[in-house]
Amino acid sequence: MIEVKVPVLAESIAEATLLEWKKQPGEAIEKDELLIEIETDKVVLEVLAPQNGVMSEIIQGDGATVASAELIARIDPGATPPAVAEPGVEQTSSAAIDLSPGARKLATEHDVDASAVTGSGRGGRITKEDVQSHIDAATKTPPASPAPPAPPAPLATPTPAKPGERPERREPMSRLRQRVAERLVQAQTDAAILTTFNELNMGPMMALRSRYKEQFEKVHGARLGFMSFFAKAAIVALKRFPAVNAYIEGTEIVYHDYYDIGIAVGSPRGLVVPILRDVDQMSFAGIETGIADFGARAQSGGLRLDELTGGTFTISNGGVFGSMLSTPILNPPQSGILGMHKTTDRPVVENGEIVIRPIMYLALSYDHRIVDGREAVQFLVTIKEALEDPGRMLLEV
Does the active-site annotation cover 372? Predict the structure, then answer.
């Protein structure tokens, strides 16, 4: 028997939750096929089949709480799934033909006659890819006569509540949501959080991006966004004010001499903050590529645990959701977080004249135990100056 265990979890993760088994005892399994997803307080992990076989036993069922490396199921690599024939019907040729477990399942799901499929495997065995190719070929062939359109389904109307009723429902919090809630409360109780604000003229940055974005994409194969500018500006400010890149541990201040920036991104299961490592050594293209990759894998649940741990400073962009102004909460044990917001045309005074400029409000929340108000204000002003004159970052002035 092959043992299926929970992946080794990070030291900060005590336990996880099994979501839903994709295979049941007696069902065929192919190597690298998804068996179950496991939710931790940081990310959802996929457990894949180590090799072909049949699911022999599920030890921990859906919704079970499990620990790192705990045994959750067994696979019999030498077994084959029993062939099931419909009562009263002679076994079709599909059962007698040599099909892989994945091919048999796919053929059954799409009602494919296995005798019409040419096998490319060893000894003429029909593989899952052979069945899929057969399905694709059949799909491309237009039907002899189009079927008449089906009548529209009637709209489902929710059952109205009876007069005087107050319908309620309860749903368990996901581990990710529980962890987010714990850390938010921890940040509020363990740190002295203050927020300082400033406004940013996005015009120079928008002009620079508009001028070079097509050439940038051709050369680097990545889209030029604004987040790389903000990450680079944050590095300039963090180097000038190292306390914002530090944290308190007991009676000591721990200063980081490296710059790992957390980029807050939304996912179907909630907010996650993957970490770009050594951003001071990254190019604009490297930052944009890394952020795009994080965003895509956050949606598909493909972020790794090591990509969600650590970080010395965080950037959160509420502007993508339409936020005009907010006070971001620290990501413990960090001492600073930069909040970006929606860019809006506003009247401002320049050289005694009222002009219209694309303005974004910036917010810096910081731990006042380690960062003085003067430092926080100057930190945000440094970011503002760097972004309103991007050449300063290139020249390091």
Answer: yes
